[in-house]
Design goal:
The protein is of the alpha/beta class and about 375 residues long. The protein has eleven helices and 15 strands. α7 packs antiparallel against α8 and α9 crosses α10.
Length: about 375
């Protein structure tokens, strides 16, 4: 049994005013009705794993506004504001001025990070300040029309376990980032992940998202066979998988060898197969880490969910990966329960949109509620 987190407490992240998850397992399934906060939970765990990288904050903020596309060089300031819970922000004391929101995440377990605190503040600057770097306060223009620059300042404090703070300055590492509307954001260094992790969202169905991870897998016959094993559940006529250069020698694309089609790009096959390839390759690249899969049922037919989840659990056990999976599909829940796998350390949590504490189910209890009583455990 392997797990990074034993418990996680989230306060003020998106719609999650307060959410406590205790007695986590190595394999965690999160269920609930639409808009209950399942995706926000996955994002919050992601931020906990990598809190000091400003690009990670920007990617998460922009993800819902642009359906998974990268934010580019000019961050969406409005999107970043919505990472912070608006109701929690309203409870801040009025004396705190331009504070947009504050959030905190705490964790226990073998994790090197014990928690984080983040604050987002509105900031302003004038066109005159933007054009003149050497200024004095008394030189500020009086005309309010000159104040054309709007942005936000993100302050992040990561609380690090003492033995894990070797490459950081202290056990409490603080970073401050400023993002200006319509202005390029530049950051030369990107901090290491405090926890090895990888997310798979419902929009990640292109093989381009995994090209940097797939090469070492294809160079190992054993790992390549494992990858072929899972994609053959979608089409048993698949015989091989490899990358081939496209255009110039700097670019490459993932190809599948098919008995009828010959060699063809992965992206011409169905969404279910492509998503399975993304999940499998991502998992194989984060040994001793955390895998976050949002809406596991997306693009995968019900008949394939049981073998896919069985493979996923077995692979996580072998690679020592803690798994977080969300679903709002009863069919997916039933398929997971019918999968051929060990039920040890598999737990489910029902998330309530009302903010009530989540309900925890052991695998056996969940099976009884669904198979013998036919209850809808989502809400």
């Amino acid at each position: 049994m392997f797990q990074v987190f034993d418990s996680i407490e989230i306060k003020g992240y998106r719609g999650l005013k307060k959410l406590e998850l205790s007695q986590l397992g190595q394999f965690n399934i999160f269920v609930g009705l639409n808009n209950s906060g399942k995706t926000s939970l996955i994002e919050a765990v992601s931020i906990l794993c990598n809190p000091l990288d400003p690009f990670h904050w920007l990617d998460l903020a922009q993800n819902r506004f642009s359906l998974g596309r990268k934010f580019g060089v000019r961050p969406n300031v409005e999107a970043l504001k919505w990472v912070f819970n608006r109701f929690a922000a309203q409870e801040n004391d009025e004396s705190q001025g331009d504070i947009i929101g504050m959030l905190s995440i705490a964790a226990t377990g073998k994790t090197p990070i014990l928690g984080l605190e983040a604050k987002l503040t509105a900031i302003h600057r004038s066109k005159w300040e933007m054009d003149n770097s050497d200024t004095l306060p008394e030189d500020d223009p009086e005309d309010e029309s000159d104040f054309v620059g709007y942005g936000v300042e993100l302050q992040v404090l990561a609380k690090i376990r003492p033995e894990a703070s070797i490459w950081l300055k202290s056990e409490g590492e603080k970073r401050v980032f400023q993002f200006w509307e319509n202005q390029r954001f530049v950051q030369r260094d990107r901090p290491k992940h405090l926890v090895n992790f990888a997310p798979v969202s419902p929009v990640h169905v292109s093989s381009k998202t995994i090209m940097g991870k797939v090469t070492p897998i294809l160079q190992s016959e054993d790992r390549k066979d494992r990858l072929l094993e899972i994609i053959r559940w979608f089409d048993d006529k698949i015989t091989d998988i490899q990358t081939f250069p496209i255009g110039d020698v700097e670019a490459a694309a993932l190809h599948i060898k098919h008995q009828d089609l010959g060699w063809a790009p992965v992206d011409v096959f169905g969404d279910g197969l492509r998503r399975a390839v993304v999940i499998a390759v991502t998992l194989m690249s984060i040994e001793n880490g955390v895998l976050l899969v949002d809406e596991i049922e997306t693009s995968i037919h019900n008949s394939a969910l049981s073998p896919v989840f069985s493979w996923l659990v077995a692979a996580c056990h072998r690679l020592q990966v803690q798994l977080f999976v969300t679903t709002h599909s009863l069919e997916a829940i039933d398929a997971i329960l019918q999968a051929e796998m060990s039920t040890d350390n598999i737990v489910a949590f029902r998330i309530h949109p009302s903010g009530e504490p989540p309900q925890r189910f052991t695998h056996n209890l969940l099976y009884t509620l669904r198979s013998e009583m036919g209850l809808d455990i989502r809400g």
